[in-house]
Write a structure and sequence with these properties.
4-stranded mixed β-sheet, 2 domains, Rossmann fold, elongated, Helicase, Ruva Protein, domain 3, alpha+beta, 13% strand
Length: 217
């Protein structure tokens, strides 16, 4: 198809959106009506209140714009919520990114979107998971484990500070900066998903990128 126009049952908004963005070959545009709150999260820009994982992951692969708001009074009988019409235009040259890795980074960053990245990444549970991934990665690639315990925590902190984003807040960081941050972590052997699973280590773009549904902002 070339154009997708739809007024969806709002409970399927998230899975439908990612199925649509995963479609190949690239279509010309999609024009979809969503519940207004969901639409606000889709079109949010860096620094805005609704800016989060949903906006970033959609805008990573498409240009997302608000067409118009639709009040509940426009329908008979009126629904309980207002709506928004949103337009998607997929980028012709998809970014080649390991999506589960990228989304894994975002999950940590947006645990508390108003906190600094340093605060989010220095969380004890986060460090534990990242260290386990690091050790698995080293084992799979026949590399020595150079950092353990406090030394690994310092390694994560140094990598974060080296990116220049340690004191930045999640909602103030744009997509290009998140991509650069992911690259910096990877250069230092730090990964965000279970690296022992081959299905999570292959570079992804386009259709494969949205095999994971983004379920929260």
């Amino acid at each position: 198809f070339d154009v997708c126009v739809a007024n969806l049952p709002y409970q399927i908004s998230s899975p439908f959106t990612f199925k649509l963005l995963a479609h190949r070959p690239v279509f010309r545009c999609g024009v979809i009506m969503f519940q207004k709150e969901f639409g606000e999260r889709l079109v949010a820009r860096v620094g805005e209140e609704n800016y989060g994982r949903l906006a970033i992951n959609c805008q990573l692969f498409s240009k997302v714009t608000r067409v118009c708001n639709v009040s509940k009074g426009s329908f008979n009988p009126p629904p309980e919520v207002d709506s928004m019409i949103v337009k998607f235009v997929l980028h012709k040259d998809p970014i080649n990114v390991d999506f589960p890795e990228f989304d894994g980074l975002l999950r940590i960053a947006f645990t508390r979107k108003n906190k600094t990245l340093h605060s989010s990444f220095m969380n004890k549970a986060v460090i534990k998971v990242l260290e386990e991934n690091y050790k698995t990665y080293c084992s799979l690639h026949s590399q020595p484990v150079q950092y353990q315990g406090p030394a690994f925590k310092a390694h994560v902190e140094n990598t974060l500070r080296g990116s220049g984003l340690a004191e930045s807040r999640a909602m103030k960081i744009d997509i290009d900066q998140y991509l650069a941050l992911l690259l910096e972590f990877h250069r230092n052997g730090i990964h965000f998903v279970n690296v022992s699973d081959p299905s999570t280590t292959t570079d992804r773009a386009g259709a494969d990128a949205f095999s994971m549904e983004v379920d929260s902002a």
